[in-house]
Design goal:
417 residues, alpha+beta, 5-stranded mixed beta sheet, 4-stranded antiparallel beta sheet, 8 helices, 25 strands, disordered N terminus, disordered C terminus
Length: 417
Amino acid sequence: MKKVLGIFIMLLFACTSRDKNEIPTLSVDLHSSDVSFEDLFSKIEIIPLETSDSCLLVDVEKIVHVDSLLYVFDSRRPALYVFDEKGAFVRQISRWGDGPGDHLLISDFMVDKNQQTIGLLSPNGYMGIYDLCGKFIRQDVLPAKPNYYAVASLSPDRWVFWSCVREDEDGITVVGKDSLNTVSGFWRNDRILDMGSLNPFYEYHDNVYFATAYQNTVYKLTKKGLYPVYCWDFGKDGINDEMLQKYRLIENEGKRNDELIKDLSDGTLPFCMKFHRENDLYYYVSLQKGLGTVNKHINVFYRKQDGSTFVFEKLAENLSITPLLFTEDYIVSKLNFDDYTCLRPFLSEQDYSKLLSREEDDNPCLVKFYEAVSKYFEMAFFVSAKKIGQALTSLSQNLPVSLIFCILGNQVNISQR
């Protein structure tokens, strides 16, 4: 069934492909709609992270899933914590200190699947390298920059780093993994605006993408530069370049920062784009309104197949979502302690009792939201069937068979960005 559906979708794309230079514009009405759990998801699993003296977390800011293990990062702890898929603690990588393999501060981490290593990034310009079991290998000193906030593996031989720097410096730096020299650099922008998102990278289908806090375009990163791949359009409720130009015209950096904070606080600047992700079904962005973690954030899911949008602060069932990890099958979110009782309709008696036994000071509990893909694909199949049939008829009547297969072959290459 999946193979047949794939052929149908390729045929449809072959007949409706865009110009190669055109990028998708994702138009979204930000007035929150009534989105229920079943609109997006099929089931829930909880992952209560084990709490012990060996693994005390304040918060969870980033998760990477590799080989049935969850690598969990909290920037207020100079270490990386590893749990299994049920939440049992496995190991700690690094610790506080200034000895070999120790850190005083960690701004980000990455798992390099090509080299089978883990990198813990210090904002002070070095990165500790460990094997996947947490054994310290070496400490790499990075090219001189005022700061380092984020890292990703760009290719088998290149890392890419993010720094918040002045307009005459490159915010993005590509570095050779062996030479540790700068290979290329780009993105010169106002650092006050760039500080709205200190971790602007995400990975999808082995590519690295870049998105800032106040600009609508999302880019794909390569060794040679940035290439726009899609753009958000929130209409009159969004951020435009005219709004941003106001801050660029303020010469004093301190005053520029004060003005930005004031406008975020009173709503003149409507939001900050804190978290971009995507999978085969959705583009996603989290919009934070105001300042601080207590302020509300808006979830925006944009379905790739038909442009349907799902905009909400909470699901209709009063359940909050704070995504940290996107896969093709599920999304992993933090669970607020106040939301525990909202999960009652979705959990077994055993899991719900386990959840209620947790204390507020325990390590965070994660929730795995499985996407409602079966219903989605069934809808896509039947909606597209008529159009695909018409396309096949048109192709067979007007094009030779050899050219049809040529189109299909090219289309497969085009769609694999």
